[in-house]
């Protein structure tokens, strides 16, 4: 369940439209939140898993508790020192787990920046097709701003990328960068973004769409299943959080 409160949105106040350069900083916020630290992001799932559902972490909590008690109550100095060590060790362990997970997801975030997210206008530019390239598009979902009259807030995004076309293979479109800010979830915005992408892909005669998600994104996977995407394959990664390996899962949708 989302932890943040959803503001009340008037019906039909969500507009899905193509990206324009003035959206860039707001899209960066949606991207970072959706990937690294927002509720239900893969980064958030990994941290939650490691700190709430992992036996070594329970042992660290126990050691911390015992160490703290010993340090506070033991009458003998050497025993108190032992208690202090028993406090420091689990703290170091927790910090290292947090650091490792955070670094991994910041790495994914940065690799997205290097690929398409630092200059969305250039990568997904509207003239892309006119130059004979395959269709690429980036859409945002905007709602009226709660703070400035006449302003808007970008609360979600999605992108369509395309693999190079060959004579033997059909054109495959790739759904990427589907994110909705936590406070605006469960209002159909993710579905609306995805439907916009699907109808555009049909218009461009793309017969097959693919996407890659992870087993750390159960909410997204539920949404994909609901829209009709089907599981295609799994690629295993070395990354592990809370005793669970992260897998990259590919889904496909025939149009
Ligand atoms: C996945 C995501 C984009 C969905 O956005 P959204 O606007 O909440 O989606 P919708 O409101 O259209 O929800 C559609 C369906 O998704 C599922 N869903 C959405 N939020 C859910 C939640 N918190 N718990 C369980 N299922 C949920 C439900 O099946 C829902 O259908 P329902 O409302 O009829 O129950 C959003 O949760 C998100 O940004 N997650 C983090 C980033 C991410 O994982 N992106 C995917 C990258 S591969």
TrEMBL record:
InterPro entries linked: Acyl_CoA_acyltransferase, GNAT_dom, NAT_camello-type
Keywords attached to this entry: Membrane, Transferase, Transmembrane, Transmembrane helix
Keyword Membrane: yes
Record keyword Transferase present: yes
Pfam family, one: Acetyltransf_1
GO molecular-function terms, A-Z: N-acetyltransferase activity
Domain annotation N-acetyltransferase: ranges: 107-255
Transmembrane region(s): 59-76, 82-101
UniProt-listed PANTHER family: GNAT FAMILY N-ACETYLTRANSFERASE (PTHR13947), LD18367P (PTHR13947:SF37)
Name this polypeptide is given: N-acetyltransferase domain-containing protein
Source organism of the structure: Collybiopsis luxurians FD-317 M1
């Amino acid at each position: 369940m989302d932890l943040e409160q959803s503001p009340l949105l008037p019906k039909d106040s969500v507009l899905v439209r193509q990206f324009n350069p003035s959206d860039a900083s707001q899209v960066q916020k949606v991207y970072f939140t959706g990937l690294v630290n927002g509720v239900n992001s893969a980064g958030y799932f990994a941290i939650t898993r490691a700190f709430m559902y992992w036996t070594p972490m329970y042992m660290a909590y126990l050691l911390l508790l015992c160490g703290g008690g010993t340090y506070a109550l033991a009458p003998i100095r050497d025993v108190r020192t032992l208690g202090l060590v028993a406090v420091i060790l689990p703290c170091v362990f927790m910090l290292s787990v947090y650091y490792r997970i955070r670094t991994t997801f910041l790495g994914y975030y940065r690799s997205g920046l290097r690929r398409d997210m630092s200059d969305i206008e250039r990568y997904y530019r509207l003239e892309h097709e006119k130059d004979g390239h395959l269709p690429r598009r980036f859409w945002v979902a905007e709602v009226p701003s709660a703070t400035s009259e006449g302003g808007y807030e970008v609360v979600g995004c999605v992108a369509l990328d395309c693999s190079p076309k060959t004579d033997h293979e059909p054109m495959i479109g790739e759904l990427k960068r589907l994110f909705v800010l936590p406070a605006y979830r469960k209002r159909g915005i993710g579905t609306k973004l995805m439907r916009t992408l699907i109808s555009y892909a049909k218009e461009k005669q793309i017969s097959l769409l693919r996407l890659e998600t992870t087993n750390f994104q159960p909410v997204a996977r539920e949404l994909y299943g609901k829209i009709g995407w089907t599981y295609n394959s799994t690629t295993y990664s070395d990354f592990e959080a809370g005793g669970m390996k992260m897998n990259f899962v590919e889904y496909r949708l025939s149009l």
